[in-house]
Design goal:
The protein is α/β, with parallel strands linked by helices. The chain is built from four helices and five strands. The chain has helices at 21-33, 44-53, 70-80, 112-124; strands at residues 13-17, 37-41, 58-62, 86-90, 105-107. The chain has a five-stranded parallel beta sheet, with helices on both faces.
Amino acid sequence: MSDPFASRPRAPAVLVVDDNDAVRTVIRRALEGVGYQVWEAADGVQAIGFLAQGVVDAVVTDIRMPGMDGWELASHVKAMTPGLPILFMSAYDAHLGSNNLPGPVLAKPFRVDELVETVRRLLLDHQPRSA
C-alpha cells in the first residue's frame, strides 16, 4: 500500500534560537501555525547540534545571548551550511540596520505577521533541503 503523503513536499524546517523560552514559544507557534516545522534551541551550542543533523532550512536567532551569541552562531552556520538563510532578532537599536550581519534583523518586539512574512521571503530565496 502506497503512502498518499509520500509525494507531498515537506514543510520547511526553521531553527529558532533564543535564550528566552517565551520568545521561542511565540515564534514556534506562529511558524507552526502557517505550516513550518520548527526546532528550538536555547543557545548556540544546541543550535549547532541541529545544524549538524542537516534538518534546518533557515535559522531565526537572537543576537544577544549568553555563551555563544548570534554573531558567533552565524559564523558556524556559514561554515557548516553556506547559503543557509539567517534572520536575526534584536531588542537593541545598535543592531538594527547593521550591514555587518549575514541576514536581515527583525526588531523586538515584532508583530507575528512581520516575522512570518520575513521567514517566508528568506525561504523563497533559498532552496530547502531535500526530504
